[in-house]
Write a structure and sequence with these properties.
The protein is α/β, with parallel strands linked by helices and about 220 residues long. The chain has eight helices and seven strands; from the N terminus they run αααβαβαββαβαβαβ. Helix 1 runs parallel beside helix 5. Bound molecules: S-adenosylmethionine.
């Protein structure tokens, strides 16, 4: 599936970022302590399955690799073909099974899932509310929505990617905003603060970072 026309600029931005994306400690998870910290969090959010897990805006597949290693059946979706190429190579190199698809995470090309996970994606979607409703609609009864998000910056006047459409949550989304958006769609939810856990980020962070875990 190709990127819809409105998203071409965003896809190009991430294609250009793909080769060096994993250089950030929380992206590549190359440090075993950082990898272990994310594995432990994922195990707390997604009970042992195996489950069908959809990793939306999967990037270079670092979380997909942890999920596959935990035994889950993972499908990653990303708009940027170069990100998907990195993800495919990463899991192949590690001998881990997963399926990766180039496509728009706002309308994932799958019928259903047990878990929908998105880390640091909502801020770059033109209609995050519509995407959240679509994701909840994909979940099987008892399924979980796991959103790893934060509020990192105040957006400037220009879009972060040339030709990007207007992005209501550019710069990130606060936990309070996300609870308001997700609460009416789900049976229950909880928030986990991630700002104080240096091991996740490779050092201290001063901005708001959290996970929202919801059940349908
Ligand atoms: C900040 S990165 C996060 C990547 C990954 N989730 C992680 O945490 O390492 C944002 C990712 O979302 C992807 N992306 C942006 N808009 C998208 C869309 N509409 N559909 C699918 N992927 C999208 C980008 O290509 C990029 O890989």
């Amino acid at each position: 599936m190709a990127a819809p026309d409105a998203l071409r600029g965003i896809a190009r931005f991430w294609d250009d970022a793909a080769a060096s994306f994993d250089d950030e400690p929380d992206h590549g998870l190359r440090d075993p302590r950082i990898r272990a910290a994310w594995s432990a969090r994922l195990a707390g959010w997604i009970p042992s399955g195996p489950w069908d897990v959809l990793d939306l805006g999967c990037g270079t597949g670092s979380l997909a690799a942890l999920l596959a290693r935990a035994g889950h059946r993972v499908t990653g979706v990303d708009l940027a073909p170069q990100m998907v190429a990195q993800a495919r190579a990463k899991l192949a190199d590690a001998g881990l099974p997963a399926t990766f698809v180039v496509g728009d995470a706002a309308d994932p090309p799958v019928a259903e899932a047990d878990v929908v996970l998105a880390r640091h994606l909502l801020w770059t979607l033109p209609d995050p509310h519509a995407a959240l409703a679509r994701w909840v609609g994909l979940l099987r009864p008892g399924g979980s929505l796991v959103l790893v998000e934060g509020r990192w910056s105040t957006p400037g006047d220009a879009p972060y990617a040339p030709d990007a459409p207007s992005l209501p949550w550019d710069g990130g989304v606060t936990a309070a905003q996300l609870v308001d958006a997700v609460g009416p769609l789900v049976a229950g939810l909880r928030l986990e603060d991630l700002s104080d856990d240096d091991a996740l980020w490779g050092g201290p962070v001063t901005d708001e970072r959290y996970a929202l875990v919801a059940t349908v």
